[in-house]
Specification:
Structural class: alpha+beta
Shape: globular
CATH architecture of the largest domain: 2-Layer Sandwich
Helix content: 25-40%
Number of helices: 13
Strand content: 25-35%
CATH class of the largest domain: Alpha Beta
Number of strands: 21
Radius of gyration: 23 Å
CATH topology of the largest domain: Nucleotidyltransferase, domain 5
Length: 438
C-alpha cells in the first residue's frame, strides 16, 4: 500500500537571513531528499537574538512563503536552529552500579547514569538545558564505548555534555516562529546544526573543528571520536566586518557589504585593483588592498583571540582533520590559507553534505546550517539518546517551566539543584524515546 512521503522542515533563524529547508523521506529509505529551500533577509535579529519581534515574525513569514512557493504545499511545523551570545557547554560525569555480579546494561541503567551526570550540574533558575549529549561511556573502567546497551559489567560511567541557554531566549524564539504560523516541534543550537551540515563522518571520528562564521556570531563545535565535546558561540561575525569597512571608508552599510563580498585575502589578487563606489551620487575610488586589510584585521581578531582561546584547553593533535569553515564569510577567497596559517591546522571550506540535492544557487557554505537541521532530525530518530533535547511543550511558557522546577525540587532536591529548569522533562523524554526505540 502506497504511503505518502514524510515531510521534514528545518528553519534557520540567522542574523543576516532566515532559511527554510524542506525535505521528504519515502518510507522505504532512511535518508531525506531535499526538495526546496526558501529564504528572506533577516530583520529584527541582532547577534542571534530577537530585538524586534514584529520584524522578526515578518521575516520568518517571508522565508516560509518562499519555501512554500518552491515546494507547492503549506508548511505547518519545523525544527528551528538559533544562536545567541549566552550559550554555554558544560561537561559532567555520572556513575551507577550494575550490581555485585556482572550483568548486561539495560535501558534503565542508561537512564540512571544520564540522570546521575545531570545531577552534578549547577544551573541558574533563569536558564535551561537545551541539549543533553552523551559523549562517551565506560564499563568497569574501559572507556571509549559508544553504545553500552547489552554489554556486561558491574559499573557504568559516562561523560555528558549539556548545552545551556537562557530561558527567555528560547521562549522568544518559539513565540516568534509560532506567531508566524509555524509550530515549533524541535530546537537545535546553530553551532551543532552547522557542524552536522558541514562535517563528514570520517572527519568527526578523526577529530575536527567546525567554525560557522555567520552574520552576527560564529558558531564553534569541537568533535572527537564522532561526538561533539564542546559547543559555543563567539560574538563576532560578518556584520562586524561590514561595520568596520563602513566606518573606516566612510561609506553606507549597503556599500560596505558590497565591497566585503569583493575582497580577497590573497595578496596577488589585491595587487593593483581599485574600486569605484557610487556614494549618494558621487564616485569614490578605493584601493582593494585597503579594504582587504580591514577584513583581515577583524578575522585575525576572530581567529587569534577567540577561536584560539576556545581550543586552548585541547591539544591540536586531537583535531587531525583540521578546521571546516562554513557561513557566508567562508566564501571569502583565500580564507582557507589565511586561517590555516594563523591556527596552524589544515582548513577547508564546507559545502552542504547533501549539496547534489540542493536547489541551484542555494548549495554553498551559507546553507550548511539549514542542511544540518535535517541531519539533526534524522540522526535523533535513528538514535534517540544521541541528542536529547528538552520537549518544546515544556519550553513554551515560563509558568510551565516554573512548575516543572518546583516539582523536581519536591521529588529530589539534589537533582533539582543540579539541573534547574528542564531536568525532569529531559529524563521523562529520554525514557519515552528509549521505550519507543526498543
Amino acid at each position: 500500500m502506497y504511503k505518502e512521503p514524510e515531510i521534514l522542515v528545518g528553519l534557520d533563524l540567522g542574523t543576516s537571513k532566515i532559511a527554510v529547508i524542506v525535505a521528504e523521506r519515502d518510507s522505504r529509505f532512511q535518508e531525506a531528499q531535499i526538495i526546496g529551500i526558501g529564504f528572506a533577509p533577516s530583520q529584527g535579529i541582532r547577534k542571534g537574538l530577537i530585538i524586534n519581534l514584529e520584524q522578526a515574525v515578518r521575516s520568518v513569514r517571508q522565508a516560509v512563503k518562499d519555501a512554500q512557493n518552491m515546494v507547492g504545499f503549506e508548511i505547518a511545523e519545523a525544527t528551528v536552529s538559533f544562536s545567541g551570545l549566552d550559550v554555554t557547554s558544560v561537561t559532567s560525569k555520572g556513575m551507577v552500579s550494575l550490581g555485585r555480579t556482572p550483568r548486561q546494561v539495560s535501558i534503565a541503567d542508561v537512564e540512571r547514569v544520564i540522570e546521575a551526570a545531570q545531577s552534578e550540574l549547577s544551573i541558574p533558575t533563569n536558564r535551561l538545558t537545551l541539549h543533553t549529549i552523551p559523549v562517551k561511556y565506560s564499563i568497569d573502567g574501559n572507556s571509549g564505548i559508544d553504545d553500552p546497551l547489552g554489554m556486561t559489567g558491574i559499573r557504568l560511567e559516562m561523560e555528558l555534555q549539556s548545552v545551556i541557554v537562557p530561558t527567555t531566549v528560547v521562549q522568544n524564539i518559539i513565540n516568534c516562529v509560532e506567531s508566524a504560523g509555524v509550530e515549533v516541534n524541535g530546537l537545535v543550537i546553530k553551532s551543532l546544526a552547522s557542524a552536522l551540515g558541514a562535517l563528514t563522518d570520517e572527519e568527526t571520528r578523526a577529530g575536527v573543528i567546525s567554525l560557522c562564521i555567520g552574520g552576527g556570531t560564529t558558531g564553534l563545535a569541537l568533535y572527537t571520536d564522532g561526538r561533539p565535546v564542546k559547543l559555543s558561540v563567539i560574538p563576532i561575525g560578518g556584520d562586524h566586518i561590514t561595520n568596520d569597512l563602513a566606518y573606516i571608508m566612510k561609506i553606507p552599510i549597503s556599500k560596505a557589504e558590497e565591497i566585503k563580498k569583493m575582497v580577497s585575502l590573497s595578496d596577488e589578487e589585491n595587487e593593483e585593483q581599485e574600486l569605484d563606489v557610487d556614494v549618494r551620487g558621487r564616485t569614490k575610488t578605493f584601493n582593494i588592498r585597503e579594504a582587504s586589510e580591514v577584513v583581515t584585521c577583524r578575522l585575525e581578531e576572530l581567529f587569534t583571540e577567540y577561536v584560539s582561546h576556545q581550543i586552548a584547553e585541547y591539544s591540536l593533535h586531537m583535531f587531525p582533520a583540521g578546521i571546516v569553515l562554513s557561513g557566508g564569510v567562508a566564501k571569502t577567497p583565500g580564507i582557507e590559507s589565511y586561517s590555516s596559517e594563523i591556527l596552524n591546522l589544515p582548513v577547508r571550506v564546507a559545502e552542504p553534505l547533501d549539496m547534489y540535492q540542493m536547489p541551484p544557487g542555494r548549495n554553498d557554505c551559507e546553507y550548511t546550517t539549514a542542511a544540518g537541521i535535517i541531519r539533526y532530525m534524522t540522526s535523533k530518530e535513528r538514535n534517540p539518546y544521541r541528542f536529547i533535547e528538552t520537549p518544546v511543550s515544556h519550553l513554551r511558557s515560563g509558568s510551565a517551566l516554573l512548575s516543572q522546577q518546583h516539582g523536581a525540587k519536591n521529588e529530589r532536591k539534589s537533582a533539582a539543584r543540579g539541573q534547574g529548569m528542564g531536568f525532569r522533562g529531559v529524563i521523562e523524554y529520554l525514557k519515552k524515546s528509549l521505550k519507543e526505540l526498543f
